[in-house]
Task: inverse folding
C-alpha cells in the first residue's frame, strides 16, 4: 500500500470534521473520522439546550447535504434557528450515519507523528505517512496510518480560566465546587435550583457571557434574590453589547441587547476593569473574587467563567506546527482573524494556503484553526474544509478559489487598546457564534450562536 492509498484521518466528528469527510468522500478520497465521544457532535450536545443565532441555512454544508440526499434526509427550514441538540440530531448524526464505517466513535487521538520520524528528523520525512496513535473506549491502544491529517477537534474541552493572566487564579481550582466553565442549562430543574435566589458572578464579555446574563435575568423574574455580578476586565463602551439592531445576524444582535437589558433593569451589576488574581473563601464557604489591584468583591454563591477557549496542542507535539505566538493559530491565518482588528464578518476568505503548516499534509480547521480568536463562524469552517479537501485531491485551482461572504458586526470586534473602553470585546474567546438559551430570546429573535467547537 502506498501513502496515496491510505485514508485521510479527520479528528473530531463535529460539524466541521464531518463536513471535511463529506468533501473528501465527494472527491473519491477515503476519510476516517476519529471521534472520542460516543455519538456525532459530542461537544455540540454539551450545549444541546441552546439555540443558535445562525439559521439552518448557515450551519449545513453543501457537500454534506449531497451525501445525505440519497438517504431520504429532509433539509430543515433554512430560515429557522436550530438548538444545539437539534443540530446534532437532525444533521450531524444523520451525516455520520451516512458516512458509515468511515466514522469511528469512542476513539481518542493521543498522538500524531510521521511514521519512524520524530519532529527532529528531516531525512525522507515528507515521504512518510502520518501515524496516529489512539486509545479506544475499552482501554485498548492502536495506531492508524494516514496520507494526511485534518484536525477538527475544536476547543470545547479546554476553556479559559478565571485568572486574567491566562492561568488559573490562585484558589480557583480549590473553589471548583462553586465554578462552572460552560453556560448552564437553566431548563434543568437541578441546575435552576443551583442558581435560583443566589448571587452569581459571570466572568467574560462575549456571547457566552451575554447568554448567562440574559438567562440569570430571566430566572430573577421568577426567583426572588437571584442576581448576577458581571465581571469585565475592561470598561463599558458602545460596542460592549455587540452590534445590536445593526448586526447582520439579528439573533446575535438580540443577544447583546438582552444582556444590556439585564444591566439596565438592575438584575445584573457590572464591575469593570477587574482582572481576577485570586479566589478566596468567605467564612461560609462562598467564593470571594480578588482583583490584581487589590479590590475584593462581596462573596458570591456561584461563579460562571466564560473567558473563551484555547486549542489543545498536546497530541500534536511531534509535528512541526507553524503557529502565531499570540493566537496559536496558523501564522498566515492569524493576521486575518486577529480580534484586535477583525469581527466575524471582516475575516478575509481563506483556505488551504493560510491553514498550511511546515508539516505538509497537516491542517487544523474549524474552531481549532482560530486558536484563541473568538471570531469563528460555522460557515467559515465549511469553506476551509472545501478548500483543504480540494488541495489534498491535487485540485489546486479549486482549492485556491475561496469565496465566502460573512455577516458583519457582532460581538467579535475590538480596537486592540488593552485598557481602552473600546478594546476588543473577545474575552470569551470561544466562538463568535456562541450558544444561548432559546428561552432568552424566542423567535423571531432566537438568542444563540453557531459555535463550532466540536
Result:
Amino acid at each position: 500500500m502506498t501513502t496515496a492509498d491510505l485514508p485521510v484521518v479527520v479528528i473530531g466528528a463535529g460539524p466541521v470534521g464531518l463536513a471535511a469527510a463529506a468533501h473528501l468522500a465527494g472527491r473519491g478520497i477515503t476519510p476516517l473520522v476519529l471521534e472520542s465521544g460516543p455519538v456525532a457532535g459530542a461537544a455540540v450536545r454539551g450545549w444541546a439546550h441552546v439555540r443558535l443565532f445562525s439559521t439552518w441555512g448557515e450551519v449545513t454544508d453543501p457537500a454534506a447535504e449531497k451525501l445525505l440526499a440519497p438517504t431520504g434526509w429532509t433539509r430543515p427550514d433554512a430560515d429557522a434557528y436550530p438548538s444545539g441538540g437539534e443540530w446534532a440530531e437532525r444533521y450531524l448524526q444523520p451525516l455520520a450515519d451516512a458516512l458509515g464505517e468511515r466514522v469511528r466513535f469512542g476513539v481518542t487521538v493521543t498522538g500524531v507523528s510521521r511514521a519512524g520520524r520524530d519532529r527532529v528528523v528531516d531525512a525522507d520525512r515528507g515521504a512518510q505517512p502520518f501515524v496516529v496513535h489512539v486509545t479506544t473506549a475499552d482501554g485498548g491502544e492502536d495506531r492508524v496510518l494516514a496520507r494526511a491529517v485534518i484536525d477538527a477537534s475544536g476547543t470545547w474541552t479546554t476553556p479559559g480560566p478565571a485568572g486574567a493572566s491566562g492561568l488559573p487564579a490562585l484558589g480557583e481550582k480549590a473553589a471548583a465546587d462553586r465554578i462552572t466553565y460552560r453556560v448552564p442549562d437553566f431548563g434543568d430543574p437541578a441546575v435552576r435550583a443551583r442558581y435560583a435566589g443566589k448571587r452569581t458572578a459571570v466572568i467574560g464579555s462575549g456571547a457566552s457571557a451575554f447568554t448567562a446574563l440574559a438567562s440569570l435575568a430571566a430566572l430573577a423574574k421568577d426567583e426572588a434574590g437571584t442576581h448576577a455580578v458581571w465581571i469585565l476586565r475592561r470598561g463599558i463602551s458602545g460596542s460592549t453589547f455587540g452590534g445590536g439592531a445593526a448586526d447582520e445576524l439579528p439573533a446575535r444582535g438580540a443577544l447583546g441587547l438582552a444582556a444590556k437589558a439585564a444591566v439596565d433593569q438592575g438584575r445584573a451589576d457590572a464591575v469593570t476593569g477587574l482582572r481576577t488574581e485570586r479566589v478566596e473563601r468567605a467564612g461560609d464557604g462562598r467564593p470571594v473574587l480578588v482583583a490584581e489591584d487589590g479590590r475584593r468583591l462581596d462573596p458570591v454563591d456561584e461563579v460562571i467563567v466564560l473567558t473563551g477557549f484555547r486549542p489543545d496542542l498536546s497530541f500534536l507535539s511531534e509535528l512541526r506546527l507553524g503557529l502565531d505566538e499570540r493566537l496559536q493559530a496558523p501564522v498566515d491565518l492569524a493576521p486575518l482573524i486577529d480580534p484586535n482588528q477583525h469581527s466575524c464578518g471582516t475575516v478575509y476568505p481563506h483556505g488551504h494556503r493560510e491553514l498550511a503548516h511546515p508539516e505538509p499534509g497537516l491542517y487544523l480547521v474549524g474552531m481549532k484553526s482560530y486558536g484563541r480568536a473568538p471570531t469563528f463562524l460555522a460557515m467559515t469552517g465549511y469553506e476551509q474544509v472545501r478548500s483543504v479537501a480540494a488541495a489534498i485531491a491535487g485540485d489546486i485551482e479549486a482549492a485556491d478559489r475561496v469565496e465566502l461572504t460573512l455577516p458583519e458586526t457582532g460581538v467579535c470586534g475590538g480596537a486592540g487598546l488593552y485598557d481602552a473602553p473600546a478594546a476588543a470585546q473577545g474575552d470569551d474567546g470561544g466562538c463568535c457564534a456562541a450558544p444561548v438559551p432559546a428561552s432568552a430570546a424566542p423567535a423571531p429573535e432566537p438568542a444563540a450562536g453557531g459555535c463550532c467547537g466540536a
In short: The chain is about 25% helix and 15% strand. The chain has a mean pLDDT of 86. The radius of gyration is 22 Å. The CA atoms of residues 284 and 299 lie 9 Å apart.
